[in-house]
Each structure stands twice: as structure tokens, then as C-alpha cells.
Amino acid sequence: MASSINAGVNLANTAKPRFTFREKLSWTWASMKENKLSYLFVAPYYLLFFTFTILPVIISMLLSFTYYNILEMPKFTGWENYINLFTEDDVFLIAVRNTFVFAFVTGPLSYFMCLIFAWFINELSPKIRAVLTLIFYAPSISGSAYMIWAIAFSGDSNGYVNGFLMRNGFISEPITWFQNPKYMLGIIMAVQLWLSLGAGFLSMIAGLQSIDDTYYEAAAVDGIKNRFQELWYVTLPMMRPQLMFAAVMQIAASFAAGDICAQLAGFPSVDYAAHTVVLHMQDYGNIRFEMGYASAIATILFLSMLLTNKVVQNLLRKVGE
Amino acid sequence: MRIRLRAKKVNRSVWGNIAVFTMLALTAAFMGLPLLFVISNAFKPLNEFYLYPPRFFPQNWTLTNFKNLFIQLSNSWVPITRYLFNTVFITIVGTTAHVFFASLAAYALAKHNFPGKKIIFTSIVMSLMFTSNTLGIAQYIILSKLGLIDSQFSIIALNIGAALGLFLMKQFMEGVPDSLLESARMDGASELRVFWQIAMPSVKPATLTLIILQVQGLWYNTGSSFLYSEQLKTLPVALSQIMQGGIAFGGMGAAAMLIIISVPILVFVINQANVVRTFTTSGIKE
Question: Residues 207-246, chain B: which have Cβ within 8 Å of A?
């Protein structure tokens, strides 16, 4: 470490402001040899990660510039898939609009739900906390449990919601909730929120448990007066890594909504009112076997998530200031 | 010397506590619905199953569904214990291997300094934002080139390299004080030992959480398109075949559902009850 700093100073003095590529390479190589152990620690995991995730992602991105129907070899078509998406494909634009509405409503809301409930639950004793966490996490652990909302919002007068509204005179005719474009997306967003206390929520609970009490005691001495000040000035800055983790989780979940829409509103939904980008991708990938086109959709979705994540991570850096 | 103040928390008002508990109770009633639904369905007699309008709770609770399920299972061509073994094997080996290798890599990424570590970590986080739908074909081709198709190690290998666990562990490893690791190194502990005996215990809440997520993912794993032999198929596949058997099998399906979700729930409750304060910073001056 010290020797490389000295080398830098010497070179700066001898009117040679830039290091050559070769020099940089040799330092990096020396540093890599020095840190052999670190690479050894990372290698088993990363080799598998690279093989089964990075490689497929790269292949998928390359395929997005081709026409590929799985049976024949991919044919290179340049930007054609991307151009068609934005100029020819009206349904894609509907899907984009729905996905953005969906993501920008459920993303932030679900994130704050995770945080607030984790924060509340953290006050309880371990046993009660475990039970309550289970109840809150229940929608995520019980498989396709959200299908009970299909029964609740069933379109005839026997559905729980219609039955309730009709008995109390709010409506006279049953509402076909999942066929009416006016209600569809709204109800699905509500169900998504109900499902949203997942991995991000659990990480926040674990994060809160990793903060030492002494910080709170010190903060109380320093003049923190109530639980909200404590949250903003002590708790949140301490659990910034968990906040970042949960943000990525919620972004991925809210942009990638698809199955839930298809299960509740049908596929395709009436007027494509619950059609999302992921459903559009599945339509082309799994049904029409146009893998190149599906890959282009995946790449665009990926880029919009990356951009959102960038913005959110910058906001999170300001927490506690 | 630490004085325990947690019994009487600082900065808490009585009215605030009452508001918190009310809100928790109201939401809990709403969130607990699916669990209640699965439980009540499992004990519903078949003649109440397709009642219209649907009923939430059964009028006559019964164990018939479970009896029928066990009779059905004992008649199966491949013994049910085979499916059970497959799922237990994938879950235990997969969880253990992922937790160990992801934590080891996360430790190096959080606490060591080496060229390329930023790129490695960024690539892992970014991959979480690529929806997996279009990756299946490439994964299949790679697995078949490695000769892992129709082997349980396809599921396990894919699972070890999952991005979520590494990201989670890395975020928690960052909170482990360097001074704690440094003092262990001064005492002559090897790096592997520092990782296992100092870093891992400090992030116990994260490890327990990761185990929950892993067990949940692997226990429900159907082997998707990677497992073909009937002898290798998993419990969820066997049970979903029963559930798809038709109307007469509705009750058995509900009983099967309850049995299958009870294992992840058990793991969840045990682990969550142990997610408790870790006191890594006690006695350390930063």
C-alpha cells in the first residue's frame, strides 16, 4: 500500500502526470496476487453466479438483436426488435403505461409498508414478534394465496365484496371487478400491496435487530425526544444497507408484476387494462416463441429498473441528514 | 459493562404504544387471511367445498381429507417417501451450500479490498433487476453442456449462485465493525476462522432470514424443466398432480396444501424467534 502511494508521488514530481496502461496493469496484478485469498472466498459463489446468471443475461441481450424462434438459428436483425416495439406494437405501449403506473404506486407504498411494519414489530418481545411476523409474511409464504381475492371480488352477487355492497344498498347490480378496466388495475395493485411484505420486510426486521441498544441510549442522552426523531437520526442511518437491499427488492417486484395480473384479471385482460410488460414478454417468449423480441422487452425492462434504482439509491443516501 | 435499558425503552410514550398495537392488530387480521383459509379448507368436508356462495369456515370440521390423502398417496406408483426425500435433499443441501458460499463471498466483498470487487458486487445487484423469463433457454443449454439435466444438482447449482442471498449477506456484513475482525486477526486467527467465528455470529439475524428464504424457495421447488425422471420429482409436483385430479380431489388438495406449507412455516417461526439482538459492538470503541 505505502509503496504504491510513494511511487505515485515520485511520478507526479517527475513531470509525468499519467501512468501508462502497462504500469497500471502491473500494479493491479500485484494487488490481485496479494489478495489471492479474497478471490478464493468469492470464487465458488461467483463462478456459479456467472455461469447461471451473467452468461444467460448476456445471451439474452445478444438475442434481442436477432430473430430467434428456438427451432432455427438466430438471424441478426439489428435494432429492428427495438424499433418495432416503440413504433409498431400498440399493446406494448399500453403494457408500458400500466407497468409504470403499477410500479410507481406499489413500489414506494410497499417500501414504506415494509419499513413501518418492521419498525412497529421490532418493539415486541421475540416470541410475539415471531408470530406477528409470520402473520404479516403469510401472504408471501402460502403460495398462490392471493387467489382468495379472486373469490372476494368475484363478479357475481355471491362475491364477498359485491354481496356486502349490495346488502348495504351501495350498489344494486353486481360489479364485474376483474372485467371492468376501471377497477382491474386498482384492485390488482391493492393485492400486490397485500403481498408486498416479503424479503425486504424480513431484511428490515433483521436489520433492526442488529442495531445495538447503546446507540438509542446515547441518542436519548443527546436530546432525541420521541420515536420519530429516533427513527430518522439513529435507526435509519444505522440500517442503510438494509434500506438499499429492500429498495432493490421492491423495485424488482413492482416492475416485474405479471402472474398476479394474469391470474386475477385473465390473460389477455379486457382492453389490455391489466397487461404488463412482463406479460407481454411471456406472450412473445412462451406463446409465440419469438425469443428475440421477448429478449428486447426484457432488456428495456431491465434498463428502466436500473434507472429507477439509481434514483432511489441516491435518495437513500440522504437519509438521516 | 452494559446496562440493560431495553426492558424500559427510551423515547416511548404510552399513547404511541397503544396506537402502534391497534394498527398492528388491524393489519394482522387482514394479512392472516390466507393462512386461515388454507387451514379451514383442509378441514372442510367435500360437500361443503363447492357450496355456493362460498363459505370461509366449515360447518362440520373433519379429518376425512387427510385420511383420503394418505390412502391416495400409499397407492402411488413411485412411493411418496421418494418425493419427500427428493425435496428434503434439495432443501437441505441447497440451503446449506448457498448460505455458506454466499456468506463467504459476501464477507470478502464487504470486508476485503481487492481489484474488481466493485464490478463483482454491482453485477450481482444488477442481475436482480433482470427478469428471469428470458434466461431459461440459456440456463437449460448450459446445464445440459455440463451434463446436469435430470439431476438434482441442476437445482442446487442454480441455487448456490442465486443473487439475493449474497446481496443480503453483504449488506449485513458491512455492519460488522472492522475493529472486531482486526482484533481476531491480531490474535492470529486465520481469515477463514475470522469469517466463521467472528463475522458469521455477528450477522446471525441475516443468516436466519436467509435460511427462511432459501427453505421457502427450495421446498416449493418443482424442478421446473430440469428434472424429468419420475424418481427425481419433488413433493410439490406429486401433490399438485393430486390437486389437479379433479373435483373429487379438492379436499385432498387442500389437505396436501396445508401439509406442504407447514414445513416452511415451522422453519420460519423457529428462525424468527431467534432473530434477536447480536451485540457485536459491545465493548468495542470505534
Answer: 208-209, 212-213, 216, 220
